[in-house]
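Technical annex, item 7. During the second reporting period the consortium partners agreed on a shared format for inverse folding records so that results from different sites could be compared directly. Each record opens with the tokenized structure and is followed by the designed sequence. A conforming record, contributed by the partner at site C, is shown below for reference.
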């Protein structure tokens, strides 16, 4: 059953990515939502594709671009899908390629299955209770034989081998605020050699899961659909995503406002630069 669910959401992410790339190749227009965040045709097309697939499962769906469900209904849910059909719309609009499709299964407030698909690079990250994997040139593999056993055989299990000895901080490309700058400056005083990498969307979480970054700090509010899939993949790869103010507590999901507190993500201790 779990393999079937994972296959469904992987195929949904790939199909949504195809639709996103069709729009990406056009002279698309950009609308603004009530919070002044951008919205494009690609967001809505991806949402429709993913929602249609997830509605064939027995679990309800919460999506950034879907119809809101009030907390008095959601609070009784033990399992549900949490979706960002196009994470990094600002990156999409800026055409830098750093956007992704995010789908997570939340079970008792914890993300237990995650899929992140980066359409521009055709790279897929996915996780279940057995671990986390990275698959390059994903579209062809999924279309030809998308069984989970085959996908795992074709993929690299996370974390990957360490590629730099520098202490690496990955930060948001579009949300570098004073708190993040202060955190970076403090970290510089604690390590001899610091490397700072900017990434858009959930690709920051993917770097943590890979073991290619030592820390991802995020200050200020984010929505739960921004982090759930990445959180699932980081955890399955041996890492952690914890509250900044309370590092002993991991992020949890299905809060009344679907918002996260400030948090920090760390990779598996086996890959972290000391």
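Designed sequence (site C submission):
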């Amino acid at each position: 059953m779990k393999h079937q669910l994972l296959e469904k959401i992987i195929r949904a992410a790939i199909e949504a990515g195809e639709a996103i790339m069709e729009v990406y190749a056009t002279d698309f227009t950009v609308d603004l939502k009530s919070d002044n965040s951008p919205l494009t045709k690609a967001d809505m097309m991806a949402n429709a594709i993913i929602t249609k697939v997830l509605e064939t499962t027995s679990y309800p769906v919460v999506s950034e671009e879907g119809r809101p469900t009030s907390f008095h209904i959601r609070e009784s849910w033990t399992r549900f899908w949490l979706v960002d059909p196009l994470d990094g719309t600002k990156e999409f609009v800026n055409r830098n390629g750093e956007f992704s499709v995010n789908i997570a299964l939340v079970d008792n407030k914890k993300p237990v299955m995650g899929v992140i698909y980066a359409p521009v690079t055709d790279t897929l990250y996915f996780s279940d209770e057995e671990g986390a994997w990275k698959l390059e040139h994903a579209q062809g593999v999924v279309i030809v034989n998308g069984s989970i056993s085959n996908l795992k055989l074709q993929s690299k299990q996370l974390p990957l081998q360490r590629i730099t000895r520098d202490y690496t901080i990955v930060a948001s490309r579009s949300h570098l605020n004073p708190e993040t700058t202060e955190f970076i400056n403090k970290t510089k005083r604690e390590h001899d050699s610091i490397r700072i990498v900017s990434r858009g969307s959930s690709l920051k979480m993917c770097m943590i899961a890979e073991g290619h970054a030592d820390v991802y700090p995020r200050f200020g509010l984010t929505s739960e659909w921004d982090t759930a899939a990445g959180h699932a993949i980081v955890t399955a790869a041996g890492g952690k995503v914890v509250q900044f103010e309370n590092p002993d507590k991991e992020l949890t999901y299905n809060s009344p406002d679907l918002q996260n507190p400030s948090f920090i993500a760390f990779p598996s201790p086996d890959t972290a630069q000391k």
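The chain has two domains: 2-157, 167-266. The chain has nine helices and 16 strands. All partners now use this format for quarterly exchanges.
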